[in-house]
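Retro notes (design track)

What went well: tokenization of the new backbones is finally stable.
What didn't: we kept losing track of which sequence belonged to which structure.
Fix going forward: every design gets posted as structure first, then sequence, in one message. First example under the new rule, 456 residues:
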């Protein structure tokens, strides 16, 4: 074992947990483009958004200038139950690989929901409660966001209505039961409860549902019930703001030992964990104080950054949401079935999209089989069973550590380990039984998705 000046786990004391979130937009010279009303194509102001979203969250969504936003005490109290999360030095992995690279990962799977999504869920539930609302509606695909939101709503005694993609509702009964344990109502989508659901079912009675369709149902349910608003677990600026707690804690922990990462790697679905992890580092980069290589990792089956275009698009398949300027494959793009459900999204955070367009970060697409291979290699050394989504970041971290082995460079690699894979064991099973496919969309499939972009 290596000499250990640096401990396996760098913990922060509770009182060291950041008291403010950091809003990276404040340091961006080119701000992310505003959300547009899909009918008038005009930028949407607070008034336009408050019918669907909570008022304080709308304020955060539109705030491009305030660098630090105080974390309310009641949110900090909840964070205290599972934060600060550990920053771990992957000594065993380094040893096993015989690499001179120094590898660190920030682990966000240390709570019942099993991922970083709880960091934003608790904030969104808090602001809904403060506004005096009765409850919130949302959609969930693989189930991580629905689980996190159920926990957050239970804490603040808010009603939580989750529209769960029908296929996941059947295939992931355990996630469903966790949500119900925390008091959420879980409706398989499409359902007969909404107009859009009834319409879709009339047209496609055998459909398994999709995330886009569940979003449309959740938005309709929020708008039609008094005292309800819709909440979303990724993509939006407010979600990246809440997730900045990940990066702020990481930076504090690294600073304690004077560690400077050469590269920061994260998986990217809608971009919230990666955006949160890199925010304070990108802030330094934007202000010219430091430099880091930043790498977003996405599935080859849903390559928004690496094969998409930077354009205005709908955030959902039902085309009811505002238009957002982002790297997108088109809201009609249907990613192939994959076991990293949290990364199967056609678009990307508009903050990360702007940073990518400005050359502030890189992106890489990786296949499904290679991420499970990386997951297994990681699990066998480090003990943690990673989520397939998180394993995208592991895969690229391993690749970079391998390069260091070949060149002899002692690079410091930091990556985000977003969650655990306990609910993904069916997928691990398929990997072991050699039943995983690796569908990469053809140019024709990509073109078909992009052909559906709105003309702005
Ligand atoms: C949802 C999810 C992701 C991807 O979402 P982002 O918004 O891109 O962070 C990654 N990992 C896990 C474990 C998730 O649940």
């Amino acid at each position: 074992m290596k000499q250990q000046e640096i401990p396996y786990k760098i913990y922060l004391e509770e009182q060291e947990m950041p008291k403010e979130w950091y809003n990276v937009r404040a340091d961006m010279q080119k701000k992310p483009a505003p959300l547009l009303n899909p009918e008038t194509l005009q930028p949407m102001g607070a008034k336009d958004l408050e019918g669907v979203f909570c008022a304080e969250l709308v304020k955060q969504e539109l705030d491009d200038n305030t660098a630090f936003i105080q974390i309310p005490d009641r949110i900090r109290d909840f964070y205290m139950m599972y934060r600060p999360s550990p920053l771990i030095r992957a000594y065993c992995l380094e040893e096993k690989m015989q690499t001179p690279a120094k590898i660190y990962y920030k682990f966000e799977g240390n709570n019942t929901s099993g991922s970083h999504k709880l960091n934003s869920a608790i904030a969104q539930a808090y602001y809904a409660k403060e506004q005096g609302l009765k409850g919130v509606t949302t959609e969930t695909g693989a189930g991580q966001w629905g689980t996190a939101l159920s926990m957050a709503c239970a804490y603040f005694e808010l009603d939580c209505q989750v529209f769960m993609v029908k296929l996941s509702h059947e295939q992931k009964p355990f996630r469903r039961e966790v949500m119900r344990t925390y008091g959420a109502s879980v409706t398989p989508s499409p359902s007969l409860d909404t107009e859009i659901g009834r319409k879709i079912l009339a047209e496609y009675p055998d459909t398994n549902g999709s995330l886009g369709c569940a979003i449309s149902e959740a938005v309709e349910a929020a708008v039609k019930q008094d005292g309800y608003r819709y909440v979303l677990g990724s993509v939006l600026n407010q979600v990246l703001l809440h997730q900045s707690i990940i990066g702020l804690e990481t930076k504090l922990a690294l600073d304690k030992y004077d560690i400077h990462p050469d590269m920061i790697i994260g998986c990217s679905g809608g971009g919230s964990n990666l955006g949160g992890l890199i925010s304070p580092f990108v802030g330094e980069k934007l202000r010219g104080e430091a430099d880091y290589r930043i790498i977003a990792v996405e599935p080859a089956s849903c390559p928004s950054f690496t094969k998409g275009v930077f354009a205005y698009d709908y955030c959902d398949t039902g085309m009811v949401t505002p238009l957002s300027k982002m790297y997108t494959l088109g809201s009609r793009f249907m990613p192939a079935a994959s076991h990293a459900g949290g990364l199967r999204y056609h678009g990307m955070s508009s903050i990360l999209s702007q940073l990518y367009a400005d050359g502030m970060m890189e992106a890489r697409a990786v296949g499904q089989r290679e991420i499970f291979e990386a997951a297994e290699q990681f699990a066998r050394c480090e003990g943690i069973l990673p989520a397939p989504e998180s394993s995208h970041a592991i895969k690229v971290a391993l690749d970079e550590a391998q390069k260091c082995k070949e060149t002899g460079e002692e690079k410091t690699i930091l990556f985000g380990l977003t969650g655990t894979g306990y609910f993904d064991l069916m997928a691990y099973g398929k990997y072991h039984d050699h039943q995983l496919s690796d569908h990469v969309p053809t140019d024709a499939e990509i073109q078909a998705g992009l052909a559906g972009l709105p003309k702005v």
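Added context from the reviewer: DSSP finds 18 helices and 15 strands in the chain.
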